[in-house]
Write a structure and sequence with these properties.
Elements lengths: L1 H37 L1 H23 L3 E2 L2 E2 L2 H20 L7 H28 L10 H30 L6 H27 L3 E2 L18 E2 L1 H8 L1 H15 L4 H27 L8
Antiparallel strand pairs: 1-2, 3-4
Helix pairs in contact: 1-2, 1-3, 2-3, 2-4, 3-4, 4-5, 5-6, 6-7, 6-8, 6-9, 7-9, 8-9
């Protein structure tokens, strides 16, 4: 009897994930095509950063140097993936705003060049085998860290612009998707604020020193609080919440009002969860204990 039930469930689960995979692939293809056509500087900057990420992956295989308990190339590899995805997100979402071509080009160029330079500094410091963040060991390291802060500060200001314009303007999309984009930017702004908290304490761990035991690859602390987790999930809210809104709009044929309610509930739960992760980290409690 159990075997019969299992046989009935497995095809449903596999079909669901197959459908989800195909939907993600279709959406990714659409985003890449749109960004390449409408925001080419963002597209090629993201591609360059992904290629840099492949170089970091190669570095993992051939370079045995470690820093803070992990290979020196782990950090630029993680940032290359995260920044590349963020760039493509900005390049796609900006096509939904009723901006002039000149304004779009200005924002796209600012975001692309600042994040490319940010990524370059992270990779350069990794190649030297030293920290890119919270590093004031020498005047040169301090200048690079300061520049990174300036580049991120510029991007935070652009996030604020997107927040105001998402409230002020009618985007070229449905009401529920526009609402999800606003919630996404607000969560990203909170995630950036968490980054500011890490800078203020010149480290990411709470209760233990940076560089101790952590989860594989991401190295999130398993013995103390780690502010990078709320920072990470916060910065990716601009992908997760709009993707949920898109999924709801396709799978649930209901009124706009109900779709907005569903997106609001999801956004509040997601934001609250990140707030809980942040609070937990500030108390020195690890996200996952292994």
């Amino acid at each position: 009897m159990i075997a019969t039930n299992t046989a009935r469930v497995h095809p449903l689960v596999s079909n669901y994930f197959a459908t989800l995979f195909l939907e993600c692939r279709r959406l990714t293809s659409k985003i890449l095509h749109t960004v390449k056509k409408d925001s080419p500087v963002v597209y090629w900057t993201a591609i360059s950063i992904f290629i840099l990420g492949i170089g970091c992956l190669f570095g993992l295989l051939v370079d045995e140097r470690s820093l803070m308990g992990v290979n020196v190339w782990v950090k630029p590899l993680k940032f290359s993936v995260s920044i590349g995805i963020y760039l493509l997100t900005v390049g796609y979402l900006i096509t939904k705003y009723p901006y002039s071509r000149r304004k779009k080009n200005t924002i796209n160029n600012i975001v692309s060049w600042t994040l490319l330079l940010e990524m370059g500094i992270i990779a350069f410091q990794a190649s030297r085998g030293v920290q890119s963040h919270y590093n004031n060991e020498t005047a040169f390291d301090s200048i690079l860290f300061l520049l990174m802060g300036v580049f991120i500060g510029i991007n935070v200001l652009i996030m604020v612009l997107f927040i105001f314009d998402t409230i002020r303007l009618k985007l070229r999309t449905t009401k529920s998707i526009q609402w999800s984009i606003l919630l996404g930017w607000l969560v990203v702004f909170f995630g950036s604020w968490v980054g500011g908290q890490m800078i203020s304490q010149m480290g990411h761990n709470v209760g233990v020193a940076d560089g101790g035991a952590g989860l594989a690859l991401v190295n999130w602390s398993t013995v103390g609080g780690d502010l990078r987790i709320a920072h990470f999930f916060g910065l990716h809210g601009i992908q997760i919440i709009p993707f949920f809104a898109l999924w709801v709009s396709k799978k649930w044929k209901t009124s706009t009002r109900n779709q907005v309610i569903a997106v609001t509930v999801f956004g509040v739960l997601f934001g609250s969860w990140i707030g809980l992760i942040f609070y937990q980290a500030k108390q020195g409690i690890p996200f996952i204990v292994t």
